[in-house]
Write a structure and sequence with these properties.
Number of helices of chain A: 18
Number of strands of chain A: 16
Strand order of the largest sheet of chain A: 1-5-6-11-10-9-7-8
Strand content of chain A: 15-25%
Largest sheet of chain A: 8 strands, mixed
Structural class of chain A: alpha+beta
Helix content of chain A: 40-55%
Shape of chain A: globular
Oligomer: homodimer
Distance between the termini of chain A: 50 Å
């Protein structure tokens, strides 16, 4: 057998125990909040039929789908020399399946397929990896986790407020101070309407979304380029100068700007309802109306959310919104829902940057017994068993290696306590407990040691 | 957009909340035992380079690998009309990556690649899905989970005993009575040696492995077919008649059979050491020596394990063994390890068949507030917040729908308590708690309700 120098595909990662313990802290924390809010887990297969995935993420998305070669003789019936055969066309002939690109489309498919087994409103969460054949770069991977929560089958705006509450609680548990931006697609539609460009809402959103980055002049230039008239752009001025001390002032301004648009006023009304719910819930979330917030995804129809960490230089760490017809692509109408997604990788980087990972998650093993071999080993095993029966994660060095080697092992794994069980201890039915932090040693019966470690 | 009737690839599954809660119970239980035994988690990417995977699972395995089509123009530089172009050859030209087939090869790759970051002996666990393009059938899926634990970088047989202990604890927690069969590859080599067929140990194992199913005559026929002489087969008679009241008797018999084989006697010695350790540990595991146990995988060099449920008609639900040179394929020698794998899907089926899933895992939501709208809703939200702050998973129906509809929702989700908060309750600062099992209702202040639900 040839020896292969080991490597992994670019854009993918191995996770060592230290990384895993941090990642599990993130997933466990998010999951615990979801549970408290009565959200239930689902999972979907890593592979979906390409017919489910294609055309749902735009042309760019189709290109970034990982496609899986058909099993068996995938060449059967395929004419590779067919005229006009492009790589894309060929791909669809030799690949029927692709890897999940996000959790939203599979969720929509799931809801339609299992509609008769589910109880609506359905509050589901899903934490699974997704795959994108994107160019790998710092913080962008080809395999990464999404943590999505959605409430589908209810138009109640209480659900939007609950997502704010969940988000507040998640980041509160992490100790990450956040700003949560909120907008409503209907407000964006309203703006398009009042400037006389109701059919150009997507172009308007795409350009306005860049206001922070490229400034007003460049946004106006882009709008012109996208075929929006100068007259309409002039009417946008109140939007560019939009602002206010607080959300109350912003709402008042919005009512002025959007007075002529029914859908716009509906958006304002929804926004007000959500803000009122959040107040009723006693939340102190820094919730900021931002009418330039658009989020790329076309399926949003109501509220839109985006979360940023206040103290870290990082893009959005969470985002979501209301969609009225996500399941429509699979043939199920009138199934409005609202959801939000937490990016595990970015949360990891923020926790790391702000030094917010709790120390204790990195010392999962509480004690190690030194192995002196033979009878001593037997005595150590008896002690170990009692520790484990008491629920204390602990181990014994598996060989009676030199004590220096065993101590190095304990050190390298940051195990806080070493337990020695030699002849002396054995004869007095005790164990010597050494605190690796202070160097302090005590000779104690096992039940005292259990008490101390618990 | 065309409407696609939703479906998923054959051999894959969606998991509804009920299934997920059961599956999570399995994973959480196994994980808790791993933790207690100081095993640490790792994860590897779903995709590996095909060069890492190919040739590691035999010809059959290569065929069952899911291959991922290269991104971008995968046809570039590929001559589809090349003479002798077979589907297999073409696949390797247009696919560089494949989906993980098991957790063992990726683990070996991981250990070699990260050898300088790891502390040895390295006790790792890994619980991730694997993919095989197998023909789907009852209980066999194309995407399924493996839960592997390995101790690598130590030849100590204490590790074998620890795996027995872990297995005992895992199935003890599940309430599944098990028989754990144990053998040693060196015993099988010894048998091959004493019958004069040292180089035919694989053929011998493959045939002997079927003894239970096809009987002695058919095994002998197969051995002949595999080129083992009648003379050698005659010498196998003591092996066919192998048995004994208990492991002590079996060990004595083995010593007789294998007296002429150094490696065979080494195998017996290892077996005795492991059994002694298990006794020292105070375990009562039903551990049964079975010298026909071979397990297909060629990389085993020492102990071999297999676990069956006593009360369920199901193949092995767990298995593993010692390997001396798994990392050798990636260029790292002298890295002996021992591991065992738990099959989540089969454990699920056994728990289901024996009705062993605990009831409480299916009622994750403890209470639901009925939504009477407006002021009542506000009052209900206040109570809900207190319940959640106390850590009680609970929810409110998001709309002020008809009470019958809300009660049906509570019933369908098997929520044990319904809380009503109307004008009457609001005025007396109480809530009405209804036990859905007994129908009993009590009007109580929120702190009393929290006490009852905790």
């Amino acid at each position: 057998m040839n020896i292969v120098k080991p490597s992994i595909p670019k854009g993918t990662r191995d996770f060592t125990p230290t990384e895993m313990m941090r990642r599990n802290y993130i997933f466990d924390t998010i999951r615990s909040v979801f549970h408290k809010h009565a959200c239930l887990p689902i999972e979907t297969p890593s592979m979906e039929n390409l017919s489910t995935l294609m055309g749902k993420y735009g042309e760019e998305g189709d290109r970034l789908l990982f496609k899986i070669l058909n099993s068996g003789d995938f060449t059967q019936g395929v004419d590779f020399n067919e005229s006009d055969m492009t790589p894309n066309r060929l791909a669809t002939k030799i690949c029927e399946k692709g890897l999940r690109y996000d959790l939203t489309v599979p969720f929509a498919r799931f809801v339609v397929q299992h509609q008769n087994e589910l109880t609506f409103p359905f509050k589901r969460y899903q934490m699974q990896p997704v795959w994108r054949a994107d160019r790998p770069q710092k913080g962008r991977y080809r395999e990464f986790y999404q943590c999505d929560v959605d409430i589908i089958g209810s138009t109640s705006l209480l659900n939007e407020a609950e997502l704010v509450e969940i988000t507040d609680e998640v980041f509160g548990k992490f100790g990450i101070a956040i700003t949560m931006k909120i907008n409503n697609r209907k407000i964006l539609s309203g703006i398009a309407e009042v400037i006389g460009q109701a059919d150009k809402v997507t172009d308007l959103c795409t350009a306005m979304d860049k206001l922070d980055k490229i400034g007003q002049d460049n946004v106006c230039a882009e709008l012109l380029e996208r075929g929006i008239s100068q007259e309409s752009i002039d009417k946008l001025m109140p939007v560019f100068s939009f602002g206010g001390q607080d959300n109350v002032e912003k709402i008042e301004q919005l009512k002025g700007i959007l007075a002529g648009s029914e859908i716009g006023m509906k958006g304002v009304e929804e926004l007000v309802t959500v803000l009122d719910y959040v107040k009723d819930m006693g939340l102190t979330t820094d919730l900021e109306i931002d009418i330039t917030l658009a989020r790329g995804l076309n399926y949003y129809t109501g509220a839109i959310f985006e979360v940023k960490a206040k103290d870290a230089a990082m893009g959005s760490i969470s985002g979501g919104g209301r969609y009225d017809n996500l399941t429509g692509i699979f043939g199920l109408k009138n199934m409005s829902g609202v959801g939000i997604s937490y990016g595990a990788e970015r949360i990891y980087d923020v926790l790391n940057e702000l030094n917010l990972f709790p120390d204790e998650i990195l010392t999962p093993i509480k004690a190690i017994f030194i192995n002196f071999g033979k009878e001593d080993e037997k005595y150590a095993l008896a002690g170990l068993r009692q520790l484990r029966n008491a629920g204390i994660p602990s181990e014994i060095y598996p060989d009676s290696a030199k004590i220096g080697k065993q101590m190095s092992y304990a050190n390298a794994k940051a195990i806080p306590f070493v337990i020695m069980a030699g002849e002396n201890e054995r004869n007095s039915n005790t164990y010597t407990l050494k605190n690796m932090g202070t160097g302090e040693q005590q000779q104690l019966p096992i039940d005292k040691i259990i008490e101390m470690l618990q």
